[in-house]
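Quick one:
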Amino acid sequence: MPQPSPRDTPEGVPLWTVTADAVVAVDFASRRRVRPPGPYRRLFARPGTCAFTAGNLIARLPMGMFSVSAVVMIAGTRGSYALAGAVTATGLAATALVAPWIARLVDRHGQARVAVPATLFAALGSLALVLCVRRDAPDWTLFAAYAATATTPNTGGMSRARWAHLLADTPEALHTANSFEQAADELCFMLGPVLAAFLCGAFFPEAGTLTGVALLVTGVLVFAAQRATQPPPHRTPTARSPLRAAGMPPLLAVCLATGAVFGSTEVVTIAFADAHGHRAAAGVVLALQAAGSCVAGLVYGSLKPSGPAEWRHPWCLAAMTAMLTLPLLAATLTGSSALLAVALFAAGTATAPTMITTMALVQERTPEGRLNEGMTLAVTGLLGGIACGSAAGGWMSEHAAPAAGFGVPVTAAAVALLISLAHQTFGE
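Output:
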């Protein structure tokens, strides 16, 4: 039998005891060692990324809890869904005004220095809301307390800013990171309302809000403690406002229309389920849509993007518009809640690629040193669109038919597509 060469000899095994099986085992082991890791494994192999991501996920989960918890808490104690809806709408409007200012401070002074006090102030607002509800305080105090929560920092935007800082020279890895962040958004907004409804129903009406406060503060403290990965502050930014940056206004208009898709879909789905006697299943149906988006986001992130984000954007919007016709057809032609759930899951698969590409464009078009502000403006556009879409979907469901209301998200997606195409055709 020929003697194996020294490089084929396993470490620690005498040369004269090596067999052919041992050489084969070494060969297989070497092949396993050289097998390249997947894109997500490479992403989180970077120092500090797991730590700030863990803190951010803890802080982001309450974003899907606070609104539902407030509605359940206020409606359960005051007996008025109208009051509960008005209070949450006021908080949404306050967030639209305050969030860009908080993001601007984050860019100038650093994430840790601004996010922690802003979060603590917002937590005090939530605790004040609980006390006002428990003590049967006047209605105006509920509006004031919930408006104070508008200082909650955009934790998703801060996480994306860290990835953009760490992966500035590796666009493919940044694409994977943005995909993960979008999947995380979908996961949190899928689990948040379910967790809030469970806590408020199983324990007491204030349990959802109190748990959300604890998670938010804990998550932000963990996130802010990871100083090594945060982008450096730009104390005297010379760049102009993101609102005036080239290509940003039409992109924010697309965010507004996309938000209308989300808001109208939620309201119309609840109205449809209620009209067919399946109101309790509405949350499960909406969770399936978020699940479809979450899965699609992770898959999209593992693929190598073809072409620039500006070229992919209208294609993603076209796919989302086409897929949103499935819930409309399922509702109008069959009236089946089961088929609607399947259709919403399928429609959700087009949501994540669209949002991932949109956020990639926001990162490209936002001036240097103002990335948190630019992404927060995009989120503000989405929130404004959600409010408008909720109103339009509710009006259509009440004055026409719940099934016809699914035409609202299709229309909103088509408007977003037309804006994107018009910008590419006519430019600024």
